[in-house]
Write a structure and sequence with these properties.
This protein has 290 residues and is of the alpha+beta class. It has two domains: 4-156, Jelly Rolls; 161-289, Homeodomain-like (Arc Repressor Mutant, subunit A, Orthogonal Bundle). Helix content is 48%, strand content 15%. A four-stranded antiparallel β-sheet has the order 1-8-3-6, with helices on one face. It has a four-stranded antiparallel β-sheet with strand order 2-7-4-5. The termini are far apart. Mean pLDDT is 80; it is low at 271-290.
Length: 290
């Protein structure tokens, strides 16, 4: 085929699959066995290493995109089309941006037209008819066009709607490691976004800046520790402050009193009033997650 290769592939594995790699071609695949093996994949350069999304029976692994795939599959029959990016530029845009939504959709393509074309390719490969090679090439060209239309119709407006729940969850999980507060750059990399898009989306989702949310999260955790018998010095280092004096200054700015005064007042309060309430920022954040 002038712009790639097609074929039916039979694979057998003796242990669960965990493969990482990058292809120089666009890899389009239709799995023919029931999709009961719960395959998942991660585009780590975009999503970080924690996010894995389900793979459907029809999926695309874009050229030059590093992907890690996992599955407990043991046998699989597939119809596979491999398209050379340079050879299909007439249909598949060279500069198509691989946004979050496009990458996620590529792992589970529900386009019925594309599925029918792949099945037709498989039937022609399995039982070639008159001018079979030409027919396969025509069907493959149609598949590229259908795939391009499908991907171009996907838009990622997450910056206008706020961050996806999985990104908010990753941020909160990272913040739970209070001994080493993250930078905005680290959180942006974890979420697969630029710092600007992360900051804008977070403000839409949580109603506050990410910087103030991080600071509030640390101070709320500090209040929890101050309610225990931990020393002020230990609380400071446990919440990521470089020194007890810096912790005291930050705590005073946020609450209007020193950690020692807050601890004493908390101990003198009636038991019914000793529960620690979050500040307004974190309360709003909690209600957003519900």
């Amino acid at each position: 085929m002038a712009f790639g290769q097609v074929g039916i592939v039979h694979n057998t594995w003796h242990e669960p699959i965990d493969i990482t790699g990058t292809s120089s071609d666009h890899h389009l695949e239709l799995t023919l066995l029931p999709n009961s093996h719960q395959a998942r994949a991660c585009f780590s350069e975009h999503w970080g290493t924690h996010r894995f999304e389900p793979m459907g029976n029809v999926f695309l692994l874009p050229a030059n995109q590093r992907v890690r795939a996992r599955s407990d599959c043991r046998r699989q029959n597939s119809i596979i089309c491999r398209f050379n990016p340079d050879a299909v530029n007439a249909w598949f845009e060279r500069h198509l941006e691989w946004t979050d939504c496009r990458l996620q959709t590529a792992l589970d393509i529900g386009d019925p037209v594309l599925r029918r074309l792949l099945i037709a390719i498989g039937e022609e490969v399995r039982s070639p008819g008159f001018a079979g090679e030409a027919m396969v090439e025509l069907l493959a060209a149609q598949a590229v066009i259908a795939l391009s239309r499908h991907l171009k119709g996907i838009t990622d407006d997450s910056g206008q709607r706020g961050l996806a729940p999985w990104r908010l969850r990753l941020i909160d999980e990272r913040l739970s490691d209070t001994a080493t507060p993250p930078s905005l750059g680290e959180l942006a990399h974890l979420c697969g976004l630029s710092v600007r898009h992360l900051a804008r989306g977070f403000r839409i989702s949580r109603g506050c800046s990410l910087g103030s949310y991080i600071a509030d999260y640390r101070l709320h955790h500090a209040r929890d520790l101050l309610a225990s018998d931990m020393s002020i010095k230990a609380v400071a280092y446990s919440t990521g402050f470089s020194s007890p004096s810096n912790f005291t200054a930050a705590f005073r700015r946020a609450t209007g009193e020193t950690p020692t005064a807050w601890r004493q007042r908390a101990k003198e309060a009636p038991p019914s009033k000793r529960s620690l309430r979050r500040t307004g920022t974190v309360v709003r954040a909690a209600s957003t997650n519900e």
